[in-house]
Backbone:
C-alpha cells in the first residue's frame, strides 16, 4: 500500500479522499492534504489532516500525490500547481473509485482521478491530471487530454476528443467525433454538436459560443501555445466584441 497525499482541501480533494477510503486496503494509505490556505494548516477536513502548504510535497520523498484543485472560475489552477511543484510523473498516483468501470483496454494517466460510477467503455484514453466526476460516461475511442475536468454526469459520444485543459460542466453532452478545444469551457447542461475552438466558452442546447475563456484559462493557453492557438482565440474574442 502506497502513502498518498492529496494536494488541495476543497470539494474535489474531499471527494478524492472518500474514493481512497472506499477503496480500502487494496488502494492507497491516505496521509493527509496539503493546501496553501494557512487557516487550514493543522486542522482536519472530513477527518483527514491538512499537513501544511503545497510546497511541503518536496519534503515528502516517499509519498505519492494527486492534485485536486480548480473550479469553473479557475480551471487552469491544477496545471499551474503541477508545474509549480515540478515533480516527476512517477510521483503522481492515479485514483479510481472502486465503483468506476475502467476496462483493460482503456488508459488513465498519472495524477488523474476517476470518481464513483464513472464508466469507460472501450479504448478510452484519459491523460494526466484529469478530474472525472461521478456518473460520467466516456465511450469508445474517446480521448481526454491532460488537465481536463469533466463534471458529474458528462456524456461523450464515441471518438470525441477533449484537448488539454478543457472543462465540461455538469450534465453536458458531446456529440460523437466532436473536438473541444484546449482550455475551452462547456457550460452545465449544454449539448455540443460541433467542434469548439480553443479558449472559448460555449453554452446552451445546441451549444453556441458565449465569449472567450476566463483570463486564467487564456493565460494557460498562451503558455502551452505551439500552434498559434492563443492568438487565434484572442482574435476571435476581439472580433466578437
Residues:
Amino acid at each position: 500500500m502506497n502513502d498518498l497525499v492529496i494536494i488541495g482541501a476543497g470539494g474535489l480533494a474531499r471527494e478524492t479522499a472518500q474514493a481512497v477510503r472506499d477503496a480500502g486496503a487494496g488502494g492507497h494509505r491516505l496521509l493527509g492534504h496539503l493546501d496553501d490556505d494557512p487557516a487550514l494548516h493543522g486542522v482536519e477536513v472530513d477527518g483527514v489532516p491538512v499537513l501544511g502548504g503545497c510546497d511541503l510535497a518536496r519534503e515528502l520523498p516517499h509519498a505519492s500525490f494527486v492534485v485536486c484543485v480548480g473550479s469553473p472560475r479557475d480551471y487552469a489552477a491544477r496545471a499551474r500547481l503541477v508545474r509549480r511543484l515540478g515533480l516527476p510523473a512517477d510521483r503522481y498516483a492515479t485514483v479510481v473509485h472502486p465503483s468506476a468501470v475502467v476496462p483493460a483496454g482503456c488508459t488513465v494517466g498519472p495524477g488523474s482521478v476517476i470518481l464513483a460510477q464513472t464508466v469507460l467503455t472501450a479504448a478510452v484514453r484519459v491523460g494526466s491530471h484529469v478530474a472525472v466526476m461521478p456518473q460520467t460516461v466516456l465511450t469508445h475511442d474517446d480521448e481526454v487530454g491532460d488537465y481536463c475536468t469533466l463534471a458529474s454526469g458528462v456524456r461523450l459520444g464515441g471518438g470525441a476528443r477533449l484537448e488539454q485543459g478543457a472543462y465540461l460542466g455538469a450534465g453536458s453532452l458531446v456529440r460523437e467525433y466532436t473536438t473541444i478545444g484546449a482550455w475551452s469551457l462547456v457550460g452545465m447542461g449544454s449539448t455540443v454538436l460541433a467542434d469548439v475552438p480553443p479558449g472559448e466558452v460555449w453554452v446552451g442546447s445546441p451549444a453556441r459560443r458565449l465569449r472567450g475563456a476566463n483570463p486564467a484559462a487564456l493565460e494557460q493557453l498562451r503558455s502551452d501555445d505551439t500552434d498559434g492557438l492563443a492568438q487565434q482565440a484572442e482574435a476571435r474574442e476581439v472580433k466578437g466584441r
